[in-house]
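Case study 2.
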Amino acid sequence: DARTREPRYRPRTTCAPWAGTGELATPAPVYTDALVSLISHFGYDAIWVNWCPGPEPVGKLPTRIPPGRTPEGTSYQPYQDRLGDLVDRAERYDVQIVPLYAAPHPKDDAQLRELQEQARQFLRDVPKIRTIVLLDEGMGSTKVGVDAWVSTCSHLASAFWDVKPDLDVVSWTYTFAARHGTPDQPKWKEYIGKLLGLDRRISFMANMDSFHARRRDGLLQLSYDYSLSLKAPSDDYVAAVKALSAEADRDGKPLRRLWGKIETRFSQESNTQPEIPSMQRWAERFRSINEFTPPVRGVFGNWYHQGFYPTPVTELFASMSYTGGMEPEDLLRRIARRDFGPGQEDLVVSAWGDFSEAIWHFPFYYGLSYTMNAGFAQPFWLDPKADNPRPWRRGFLNSLAAMQMNLTGQNNRLGAENRRRVGELEKHWSAGLEKLRRAADAAPARVRGVAESQWRTARSFGNNAGVTLRLVRWFDARDRYYAAKTAEEKNAAIEELDRVGREELAAAEAELPMYRRDSRLGHFNHGRGCYTAMTIEHKIDLLRETLDKDLPALRAAK
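Prediction:
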């Protein structure tokens, strides 16, 4: 029947927002019936959870363990009844539960037998499990190499199949894929050769938007993971699938079942707002996954930093992950009409088009991701050696070199280009914001709240770009001050620091009410990529002290 829509891939897997580690061990259930129903409504048919088999826990609680890791003494075993209950409840919504099953590389044959029996018992205890994912990040494999992980996966899969022969066991190569360079390098070829040692009944999964991907102009660059500003599928995903296809052709066997790890509402460019509203760019991304050949059979739609959240981008994914749906352009117009009111479609879709153009200019690397995630919480330190309380990649930074924006010194090759590209990003994003603001102002009362919410989401990303550009100017002036040889040079640098600092202070104070009002912005996640109204207030206090106390002291000392 032409009216029947079929899923393009199954499962389509997600997880609860901000959960992903201890979702089965929390005092109150994360996966309520209402949340499972909503997840199903938005087109997903699977939820992934962590599972670490073993004895009673004597180490860290599961809520403190990142996905795929198995520190000594940690176990989810006491929460097995919760898992069974979730499997049964999710089944009512045609949603399956997919364990991200973590087990260490066995140190000897005795431990191997123990791990295999734990695997068998797991499926005896929870027999409705249909899919299990084995992730290389953790499992002891990164310490002992690809061969060890391949061996562990094959041994576990064999044990699983003893109990459930039709179980889909999926190997997810993430850490190893990131570490072995581009597909034309010998170490990558060695890595993929070892990967082919997996039991061929095991499905293959890798990141479709990582790790070596191309810009719009065709330049290949290291993206690490989850980048909307680069094309998908990445070169390494394509090369891996070609190697798997060649293996199948050589042996006259069917190709392994292919999975793709993707994101379905935001990416590492900035993950401290509900989505990156570059709608046409997302449509291109989802279309590239749909058109990939050989076809992807299953997707892992969110990592635990992100998780499921109902947004227009999520709605777009829900539509495009089925056959026979509305054309993306028509769906965008329908969403715009629904959320901003009739007659606003052209303006809203045009704004999304500006955001989609803007994201292409994002020079993807982790140095920029700091400020594009921290936003107004990013301190403007006067001291180049100030103690940084959050130096991780979604935290703070304190130099042009760390931002890869330096024009002199070591590793300055991309400094000028990165500055130019962030300027282009901010220009196009600002154009879209102006249109979206007009649309929100004209929205009828019945949808004004929704329109304003979407405006704030886009505004927060634009704010982060503005902070980034001002921080570059701040570091430029600070570097000139410390390099100055004369009083005139020092005075000019101090005046620029004062000027930029007051621009930043005024912007932060003007935007603070928005962050106080909307707790979705800068939301906390396990990636530590967060800001809140309180952290922005703290930054404002620090900046006031710098402008009113520290800079005057520099003037007096020159």
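Residues 445-483 form the longest helix (39 residues).
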